[in-house]
Design brief:
- The protein is an alpha+beta fold and about 230 residues long.
- The chain folds into 2 domains: about 1-120, Ubiquitin-like (UB roll) (Roll), CATH 3.10.20.740; about 125-205, 2-Layer Sandwich (Alpha-Beta Plaits).
- The protein contains 5 helices and 10 strands.
- It has helices at about 20-25, 75-90, 100-110, 145-155, 190; strands spanning about 1-5, 10, 50, 60, 70, 125, 135, 160, 170, 200.
- The strands form 3 sheets. Strands 2-1-5-3-4 form a 5-stranded mixed β-sheet, sandwiched between helices.
- Strand 3 (about 50) and strand 4 form a beta hairpin.
- The longest helix has 16 residues, at about 75-90.
- It starts with a strand and ends in a 26-residue tail after the last strand.
């Protein structure tokens, strides 16, 4: 079937999403909860775009294409919604996201440098009980990628989403952290995290307080989905 994205006509297969069509057309659509190794989730609403005939912006990652569909990834209303979403996410963090993280890169490209809604931020809480992984809970934006990487990619089910609203976060084990959970130290959670809430301890250069340089490259473990 044929879909037009930002004036570019592309051929997509049945079942293809608007996000896939946009990427095929060379258009940028911001994402935070999306990882192409995982099933589309549609939680973050950072990928909102305009579709001809739709009354309001739709999430590109979960919207299936139809033949003849016209998509505008630069629609002013959609971009306003997306920018507000990113602002709200950043408003809960006690400090700006590190420049190399996906959240920071999305914010920069959208022109979001802070938040118009200052208020309560997450309390700094670090879990260093795992020998290889560090969890900085205050950086968690509840995108669900780490939980789904653990479930869908690795089949370990060591992580779970807990809480609601501002108090939402991720937990491992039963109040005991990664060390006593079913974690097998594969690194899938750290690999997919868009904020470095979960990261490899060796990247922390001796501990959370010291931390790596802002431009420190992440050690990516591109895990096979097979």
């Amino acid at each position: 079937m044929q879909v037009t994205v930002d004036g570019v006509a592309v051929e997509v297969s049945d079942g293809a999403t608007v996000l896939e069509a946009a990427r095929q057309a060379g258009s940028w659509v911001p994402t935070l909860c999306f990882d192409d190794r995982q099933a589309p989730f549609g939680a973050c609403r950072a990928c909102m775009v305009a579709v001809d005939g739709a009354a309001k912006p739709v999430p590109a990652c979960t919207t299936v294409c139809r033949d003849g569909m016209t998509v505008d990834t630069n629609d002013p209303t959609a971009r306003r919604v997306v920018s507000a979403v990113v602002e709200l996410v950043m408003s809960e963090l006690p400090s700006p996201p590190a420049p190399h993280t996906e959240l920071a890169q999305v914010a920069t490209r959208l022109g979001v440098s802070g938040s118009r809604w200052p208020g309560v931020t997450h309390q700094v809480e670090h879990d260093l009980r795992h020998p290889y992984l560090a969890f900085e809970h205050e950086l968690c934006i509840s995108c669900g990628r780490c939980v789904r990487a653990c479930d869908e990619v690795q089949g370990t089910f060591a992580l779970t989403a807990v809480g609601r609203g501002f108090g939402a976060n991720v937990a491992a084990g039963i109040g005991s952290g990664f060390l006593d959970s079913a974690c097998v130290s594969c690194g899938a959670c750290a690999d997919t995290c868009p904020t470095d809430a979960i990261t490899e301890r060796l990247l922390l250069d001796g501990g959370i307080n010291g931390g790596p340089p802002p431009d420190a490259p992440r050690l990516r473990k591109r895990l096979s989905t097979t």
